[in-house]
Automatic annotation (TrEMBL):
Organism annotation: Gynuella sunshinyii YC6258
Domain Threonine/Serine exporter ThrE, first and last residues per copy: 13-149
Name of the protein this chain belongs to: Threonine/Serine exporter ThrE domain-containing protein
Location of the protein in the cell: Cell membrane
Bilayer topology annotation: Multi-pass membrane protein
Main location: membrane
Length: 158
C-alpha cells in the first residue's frame, strides 16, 4: 500500500468518524460553537487508532487506549483554552471508537446458546468477543480519564 493510499484511507476514516462524533455531541447538548472541536476530536482519535492498527501493528485495545489518551490530552488543552470542561469535547469524540461489532457478536453468541443450547464453539465466540469488547471499553474509559486526572489533581500524591 503506497503513501497516497494510506492518506486517502486515513482521510476517509477521519471524515466518517467525525459524523457520529457530531451527532452524539448534539445528543449531549454540546453548544453549537463547540461541535467542530468534537468532530475534530473524533476524527483525530479514530484516525490515530486506524494508523496504529494498520501501520503500527498494534492490538486494537492498545491502539484504542493510545487514541483515547491523545483525545483526552487535546480535550484538556481545548478546555483550558476555551474555559469549558474537557468532557464537552472528549466524550462525544470517543463514541466512534466504541466496539459495537465485538459486543454485538458476543450478544448474538449468547442468543445462539439460549436458542440452540450450549456449544463450546459458540461459547468461545462469546468469550473472545466479550473480553475484547470489554477491554476496548476499559481502554476508552481509562484513556479518557487519565489526562484529566493528571492535569486537574488538586491534592498532592503524598
Amino acid at each position: 500500500m503506497g503513501l497516497m493510499d494510506i492518506l486517502i484511507a486515513l482521510a476517509n476514516d477521519m471524515f466518517f468518524a467525525a459524523i457520529p462524533a457530531i451527532g452524539f455531541a448534539m445528543v449531549f447538548n454540546v453548544p453549537p460553537k463547540y461541535l467542530a472541536y468534537c468532530a475534530l476530536g473524533g476524527a483525530l482519535g479514530h484516525g490515530l487508532r486506524m494508523l496504529l492498527l494498520t501501520q503500527g501493528g498494534m492490538q486494537v485495545e492498545w491502539a484504542t487506549f493510545t487514541a483515547a489518551s491523545s483525545v483526552g490530552l487535546v480535550g484538556v488543552y481545548w478546555s483550558q483554552k476555551l474555559n469549558v470542561p474537557p468532557k464537552v469535547f472528549t466524550v462525544a469524540a470517543m463514541i466512534p471508537m466504541v466496539p459495537g461489532v465485538y459486543v454485538y457478536k458476543a450478544m448474538i453468541a449468547i442468543v445462539e446458546i439460549n436458542h440452540r443450547g450450549f456449544s463450546l464453539e459458540i461459547w468461545k465466540i462469546f468469550a473472545e468477543n466479550f473480553i475484547k469488547g470489554t477491554s476496548i471499553i476499559a481502554a476508552l474509559a481509562i484513556g479518557l480519564a487519565m489526562p484529566s486526572l493528571l492535569f486537574y489533581r488538586r491534592k498532592p500524591l503524598i
